[in-house]
């Protein structure tokens, strides 16, 4: 029997990609919401999971209602403030939530490889993260880049203040314990991410390029099929793919 879901942000680029991917993923979009629609308990009645690809301020109220109605959630939206992230995370005590800044299998592996590289290569290998997205993207850096920053910071035990977003003017020599982050915007780029480890005499670059939103849509629907079988808690795409060792 197909999995019946509620989709928040159905009119958006990702909402449409999810609608297109649903039949092939064994999913039926039973209810749809977008900006201006009433967000209330009846929207959650009878659905097995709720999927959010909307806007950062919409996620917490959506997840709160999902938790009240005991409906598991998949969050794809990015760009949340620290306060929003804290509020959303608290609902994971009541329902299972999969929350990933990027639902592609390739980026889930990129995260894994970046963690390994940041651990194996010493601080002499300077880390720079470069991402590029389409001209309409609202947040910067991307949720995927934020995750890569977090991974490198944890692996290298660096403070939040070590992250520099772009450079301009007389910035001086680059400190060893710095992570440079650069967000490029233009055209219809679906999503490119590169993590550079620049050492003396060699440079390692890990790059992922998304050319279709279908990869995020199919990953999010895979997560929806998975989340309905889980206990309350906060999960990532690495959990869905069984990558956690
Ligand atoms: P979009 O702007 O094309 O679509 C967003 C949709 O959400 C629009 O239809 C908009 O009307 C709707 N919306 C805005 N406020 C709302 C509200 N309060 N309630 C309900 N709906 C509301 O954007 P998009 O490219 O579809 O991306 C949506 C989100 O998903 C963004 O945060 C984006 O960064 C993120 N994203 C995540 C992944 C991933 O794999 N996690 C992949 C692509 C995009």
Element-level helix/strand string: EHEEHEHEHEHEEEEHEH
Low-confidence parts lasting 5 or more residues at pLDDT below 50? none
Q: Major beta sheet, specifics?
A: 6 strands, parallel
The CATH homologous superfamily name of the largest domain equals NAD(P)-binding Rossmann-like Domain
Describe the structure in your own words.
- The chain is an alpha/beta fold.
- The chain folds into two domains: 3-103 and 213-240, Rossmann fold (3-Layer(aba) Sandwich); 105-210, Dihydrodipicolinate Reductase, domain 2.
- It has helices at 13-21, 56-68, 82-90, 105-120, 143-156, 214-227, 237-240; strands at residues 3-8, 27-33, 49-52, 73-75, 96-99, 126-133, 163-165, 179-185, 191-198, 203-210, 233-235.
- Strands 2-1-3-4-5-11 form a six-stranded parallel β-sheet, sandwiched between helices. The chain has a five-stranded mixed β-sheet with strand order 7-8-6-9-10, with helices on one face.
- Helix 2 (56-68) packs parallel to helix 3 (82-90) and helix 4 (105-120) packs parallel to helix 5.
- The protein is elongated, with a radius of gyration of 19 Å.
- The structure holds nicotinamide-adenine-dinucleotide (NAD).
- Residues 8-9, 11-15, 33-35, 53-55, 58, 76-79, 100-103, 143, 216 line the site of nicotinamide-adenine-dinucleotide.
């Amino acid at each position: 029997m197909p999995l019946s879901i509620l989709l928040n942000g159905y009119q958006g680029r990702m909402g449409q990609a999810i609608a297109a991917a649903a039949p092939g993923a064994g999913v039926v979009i039973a209810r749809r919401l977008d900006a201006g629609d009433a967000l209330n308990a009846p929207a959650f009645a009878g659905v097995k999971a709720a999927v959010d690809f909307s806007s950062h301020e919409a996620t917490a109220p959506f997840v709160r209602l999902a938790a009240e109605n005991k409906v598991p959630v998949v969050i794809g939206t990015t760009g949340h403030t620290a306060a929003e992230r804290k509020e959303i995370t608290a609902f994971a005590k009541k329902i299972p939530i999969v929350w990933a800044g990027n639902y592609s299998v390739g980026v889930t592996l990129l995260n894994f490889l970046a963690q390994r590289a940041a651990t194996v290569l010493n601080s002499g290998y300077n880390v720079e993260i470069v991402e590029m997205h389409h001209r309409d993207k609202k947040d910067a850096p991307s949720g995927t880049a934020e995750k890569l920053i977090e991974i490198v910071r944890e692996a290298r035990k660096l403070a939040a203040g070590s992250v520099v977003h772009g450079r301009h003017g007389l910035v001086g020599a680059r400190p060893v314990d710095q992570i440079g982050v650069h967000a490029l915007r233009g055209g219809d780029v679906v999503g490119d991410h590169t993590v550079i480890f620049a050492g003396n005499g060699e440079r390692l670059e890990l790059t992922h390029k998304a050319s279709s939103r279908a990869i995020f849509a199919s990953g999010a629907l895979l997560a929806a099929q998975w989340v309905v079988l889980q206990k309350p808690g906060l999960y990532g795409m690495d959990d869905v793919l069984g990558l956690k060792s």
